[in-house]
Amino acid sequence: MNDQEFNQRAYSNPRDGGEDFKAALDASPDRQRLVSELQALEYRLEQTLQDIAIPANLEDRLKRNGTQSSSNGENTAETHKPVPAPRRHWQRFSRPAAIAASLLIALSLSFTVLTSRPTAADMALGNSLLNHVHAESRFYNVDNNIPWSSASEVMQQTGASFASFADVANEMNLTFAEFCRLMGNDKRGTHLVIRGEHGPVSIMFINHHPIRGKVELQDSELRGEVVPVEDGFLAIFGSPDEPIARIRTRFQRQLTWSI
User: Fold this and answer.
1) How many distinct helices (H) and strands (E) make up the chain?
2) pLDDT by residue (tens digit) across 227-243?
3) pTM for this prediction
4) Are residues 165 and 251 in the same domain?
5) Which controlled-vocabulary keywords does the entry list (predicted)?
């Protein structure tokens, strides 16, 4: 079972009891951490649902109010009924509606938590890319200008292209363009290096390997971001002082997949 299938099943059911799921889980500490986090989140959601209390006798009170408002007004001339106090917002709903609203709140909470932090697998991917940049840094000669047509040839082999090469070429100086086995397997990705304001900046992208959300990494020498682009990802690494976000935004807008 590959990481993509495992992550899909883990997010669908972190208590999956399938033998293939258990075997895949036992084979990777990163997967174990991910499942542990998901199970903890699921437990917190269950507790949240239990803690959202429906007011006592809410349904009976709503029915009684409805009956009173539909009466034909007998004896209203002789009796002055007190004006009822304004109902709180939760009193406008029936019990099923209140339960559904509670469930929506909990689901919204879970979505926010899941999408606001990267998974263990995404963090592992980010760290492997960071290590890749360190390992190849001796090849990044910032004085070595090469034409952007070299980047086009490399990208075609990995199923990527830019919406407008001219926009990128006019703004950035290319110094390195190769396809690399960025993930230590048979998947090849494009690895470009441009001349940044504070040294070389690596731009890497690969298709058919989705990530759940943005990953940010930094050590003493490099700072980087990995972001999803449709069914793949885009990664940018440079000096801690480099405007990484600005460079990433430019490439993210231009990058498209042709395969």
Assistant:
1) 9, 8
2) 999 888 999 999 999 99
3) 0.56
4) yes
5) Membrane, Transmembrane, Transmembrane helix
